[in-house]
Amino acid sequence: MYEQQPWGAQQPGPYPPAGPPQGGPGAAIAVTLKYHPISFLMGLFKPQTTLNGHQVANAWGRQVIPVPPGQYHVHVHVPYLLPPQLGPADLGVTVYPGQTLELEYRAPMIGFIGGALGSPPQKYPGMTASIILMVVSLVILLCVCGGIIVSAISDSSSNSYGMPIHDVVQYVAGVLLR
Q1: Cis amide linkage into residue 121, ω under 30° from 0
Q2: What is the largest distance, in Å, between two alpha-carbon atoms of the chain?
Q3: In total, how many domains does the chain have?
Q4: Which of 26, 85, 105, 120 is deepest in the core (most CB within 10 A)?
Q5: pTM of this structure
Q6: How far apart are CA 38 and CA 134, in angstroms?
Q7: Which of 125, 142, 159 corresponds to the end of one domain?
Q8: Do 161 and 139 fall within a single domain?
Q9: How far apart are the C-alpha atoms of 4 and 6, rounded to whole Å?
Q10: How far apart are CA 136 and CA 118, in angstroms?
Q11: According to DSSP H, which parts of the chain are helical?
Q12: Per-residue pLDDT tens over the stretch 58-113
């Protein structure tokens, strides 16, 4: 999506090119990158933060990027295989002299939706859908386990398919339900 060009090369669009990280009279953009603990596998991948198309950071946590005052286009995503970018998020910001602009990025709970980038605090995108999926999975698991236990403690010697019930399952179910 963004080509890596040397510092100072002209970028198309309304935003001026970002200076090198050491440039800027006291202005900065501070980006805090977070993922939810349930999505712990996200920690295996390093997020990429770009400023006007130039990569400036690639780590979770708080990154302070010194910049000269001006307008910038901030893009954050987590590189992956399919899709190639998890949780892409874009934001246009204006940094004034002497200002440290605080931004927060939250990676999504579901890989196929965008991340949240803006002033803190941000919410985790896809949290409601993740909770619903976990509850549905738990209900299905409980129904399956409950069905096995009920069929194991029934007095019939075979289930509805005519297959004999294993004595071990019947014994374990009897111990658990005492």
Answers
A1: yes
A2: 82
A3: 2
A4: 105
A5: 0.70
A6: 11
A7: 125
A8: yes
A9: 7
A10: 32
A11: 127-153, 167-176
A12: 999 999 999 999 999 999 999 998 889 999 999 999 999 999 999 999 999 998 89
